[in-house]
Design goal:
Layout (H helix, E strand, L loop, with lengths): L1 E4 L3 H10 L6 E4 L3 H6 L6 E5 L5 E6 L4 H11 L1
Parallel strand pairs: 1-2
Antiparallel strand pairs: 3-4
Length: about 80
């Protein structure tokens, strides 16, 4: 899942279709979700365990190896 901050639905849908994205993308037009999660930079990724606890917050782009490492930490 992805959360897009401050965009409008039309351009976001065009972007997702152009790149053939198939995962859900939620809109956070007023940045309320970003504030709640303490987002300090974009892109920001959160790895949340099964109990809903944020275990890792990563600011900046992610590599496949970083994703795998973070998932290993919380699974």
């Amino acid at each position: 899942m992805s959360v897009d901050i401050g965009e409008e639905q039309g351009p976001l849908q065009a972007f997702a279709q152009e790149r053939k994205l198939t995962f859900p993308i939620l809109l956070d037009q007023n940045a309320a979700v970003a504030r709640k999660y303490g987002v300090r930079g974009i892109p920001a990724s959160f790895f949340i365990d099964r109990e809903g606890v944020i275990r890792v917050q990563h600011i900046g782009p992610l590599s496949e190896s970083s994703i795998a490492r973070y998932l290993d930490q919380i699974l």
